[in-house]
Write a structure and sequence with these properties.
single chain, alpha/beta
Amino acid sequence: MEIICFGDSITRGYDVPYGRGWVEICDASIESVNFTNYGGVDGCSVQAMIYNIENWAVTAVANLTRHIFLMCGTNDILQGRDSAYVFKTLVKAIELASTKGQVIIGLETQIDSDMDGLDLIVREVNEQLKAYAAAHDIKVIDFYTTLFEADQIGQIVFAGEVHPNELGYRLMAYKALEIFTRL
């Protein structure tokens, strides 16, 4: 089985050594799955993720056994874009990726200190994505709740305002493996 991952720096594993990001932890944990972190790009906006998907899709053959993981949006929010724009653009990415395989949506993690109320926008987008996924029978990995709950009980899961630390990525991997091991 194949899982192709597209997203931003959180998908790439920013701020930790290679091998300690959540995608690499998942890859090392499941022998029968081939993970490709195709588009985990630092600073990636949703539109840039669409561009990455388009470039990949040119040569990718549609395959219903392939899973395509998508998670992006925090950089758009940090740049001042509202939840309606981010959600609408993510739906375009989901629709494009779904022509090449089964999409799995990752919910973006919190903005740790709620800079300027921006975490509210992250939550709004995540709620819209959950509703969209339910209506279209798409699997969701709720990274937001995973890290939020760990943060609430005093675990240090962020290296800064946005990026998880090693513990945060490990918790994300455990959450993702709950879905990936059932595919």
